[in-house]
Amino acid sequence: MRAAVKPSGTRSRPRNQRRVLPWAILALWVAAIALAGPLAAKLGGVQTNRAVDYLPASADSTQVAKIQDALPGGEATELVLVYHRDGGLTDADRTLAAEQTAEVARGHALTRTPSPVPSEDGTTLMYPVSSTEPGQDDDARTAFVDEVRAVAEGGGGLSVDVGGPGALNTDAQKVYKALGGPLLYTTVAVVAILLILIYRSPLLWLVPLVVAGVADALSMAVVYGLDRGFDVTVTGQSSAVMTILVFGAGTDYALLLVSRYREELTRIDRPYDAMVAALRGCGPAVIASSGTVAAGLLCLLAADLTSSRGMGPIAAVGVLCALLAMTTLLPALLVLLGRRVFWPLVPAYGSLPKQRRSLFAAMGGSAGRRPLAVLACGGVLLGALALGAFNLPGDLKQQDSFSSKPDSIVAMETLATAYPGRSTQPITVITPTERAGAALAKARATEGVAAVERGRSGGGWTELSVVATDRPESAGERATIEALRDFLDGSHVGGPSAQQMDAETANARDLRIVVPLVLISVLLILIALLRSLVAPLLLVAAVVAVWGASLGIGGLVFEPLLGMKGTDPGLPLLSFVFLVALGVDYGIFLMHRVREETLSGAAPTTAALTALRTTGGVIASAGLVLAATFAVLMNMPMVSLVQMGFVIAVGVLLDTFLVRTYLVTSASVALQRKIWWPGALSRTPTAPDGPREPELLTTA
Q: I need a labelling partner for 494 at 20 to 30 A (CA). Which of 54, 95, 414, 546 fits?
């Protein structure tokens, strides 16, 4: 830590540069937001949240959806009207159901006349309804489903729910479209509260928060441009994660910059010159860390799943926009506001930093005294937690994908109970028209098929609707889908259950491909940055251990405590990418300071403990902010978002308070200069550790 003494003078910038440059940067950002604002507002209109939009273009179920779009009338919206009374339906109930279904048929162009399908126990009556009237327009589909729901009403003990794939997709669309406002407001509120507690200033907290909001608007405009220019798939999930990253990562960069700026203000008189010194000091680490995060995220471009492949560039745009705003707009605003922005804790020029007891100095001291014991205990703890991953529930089913059940899920559960001997969700087969007759006969002869109905034809293709004997998404129905794909050469098998199967297959493939790419790319960047092989391997091994432990904690919490009946198939891959990229982010902050202290002549132990003592508070604050922003996703109504938010938030906290504080520091002490092998630092003779500052003291 540099001594806080009043310097005899600093090299000053030309007066015009000090006055003009901050104002010029501010003016450029005002112009940029004026141009980006209208584009950012259009991002919600290009989101695609149908299940098929998440799948690979080559998937069998994706081909079914594309061909259906080209059939006469376009893609059909499939609904099921479900009438249910616990004690058994009455004649009046059946009459009401027939009247309401007829009213739906009069008001809309249906592909076929709805026919009632009664349950064996007499408690339920379902009417399948199919219409091509809405076409491919999401708003038209939503309006159609809402109109049907307005007609289908019960009462007096009769429940009426509208389900089916069309209703399920509509409910998902509504949830994702409603995420934007609550997600943004909650994220801003959480970050604001944490910044107020960290800075203890009535004004300072507002500056990085406003800058993060500007970065978020810019990132939305850029992503809209990517969608228009490069057909990047934008989903509600990727948009939500981008906002979280902008505020979380952006605030982290702000915390590091403001901390260094405050330190420089005690040494340098003019705020402009102090900001230049701060950017020189922490800028390389911030740029390197954000670049590593972006590189890791861009590895998702190798994913087969369309939603994951789109997530990569969208999340990377969020990180890079946050970096740009926090290294240009934030410094300009802080310089223009001057020292008074820190009130009431204004850093006076030439003052000595206030000394206080430091938790991180104490933790570093314990790690420094018994580094091998700390490493062993930490490794055992992370390994034990990772075992909980074996307790993760199976793949998430559609009916369990909402944390609060919409109408379509209630209908699905009612049908599953009332019709145990047959599927209530047809499997769609698209077959060449010249072989439609043979395909129809083969489908009827396939084991597990209860009925087959011929549908529309056009463009050389014919649609078959297959009803399985087993429940939707059951093992039996999956076996039927696989059998149909095996027996019907040249045909495509799709529908909701087939889409789930294709998503799981794509996620398993992506995990095998993307994980090694992320590890290799991050490792190469760390090697180039730290000029070492051992330190990068240590950091990568640490974040992989954190990922395993975080999934393990999820396995101990999701089903036993939260009652979740499945795990989102994309959770392992996405949580790995984010935790590795963001975890290495903090590792760079710490190890960059260790390297800086080592280059200044400090002995290895002193360098490691000094780095922890001087950066521990800032990294802890940054980790808390990032974990809190991802925890906001746990308040969303989609199970996939809740699980992602939980695993990443837990992982960031583990990384911040266990791995960075204890394990990386202990490894640095235990390995001494070997941690920089084979770089030049590893060959420098080791000086004995001299007298150190009291371990329980650090700067405020």
A: 414
Q: Are 578 and 690 in contact (CB under 8 A)?
A: no
Separation of alpha carbons 266 and 348, rounded Å = 6
**What DSSP designation does 563 have?**
-
Region 182-211: mean pLDDT is 89
> How many angstroms separate the CA atoms of 573 and 564, rounded?
19
The percent of residues above 70 in pLDDT, for the chain, comes to 92
Q: How many CB atoms lie within 10 A of CB 219?
A: 30
Report residue 699's pLDDT band, with 50, 70 and 90 as the boundaries.
Answer: very low
φ, ψ for residue 79, nearest 5 deg: -125, 160
CA separation, residue 347 to residues 259, 344, 636 (Å): 11, 9, 41
Coil/strand/helix, residue 193: helix
The CA distance from 579 to 647, in Å, is: 9
Lookup: tokens for 213: 């909001």
**383 sits in which H/E element:** helix 371-386
Which of 238-252, 267-281, 588-602 shows the lowest per-residue confidence on average (mean pLDDT)? 588-602
Element (H, E) at 493: strand 492-494
Here the tokens at position 424 are 């209530």
The mean pLDDT of the chain is 87
Q: CA-to-CA distance for 560 and 550, rounded, in angstroms?
A: 16
Output the six-digit token pair for 446: 């396939």
In the block, which residue shows the tokens 């801003």? 188
Which stretches of 632-691 are DSSP H helices? 639-654, 665-671
Higher-confidence residue of 686 and 253: namely 253
| Cα 182 to Cα 186, 542, 633, 642, distances in angstroms | 6, 34, 10, 14
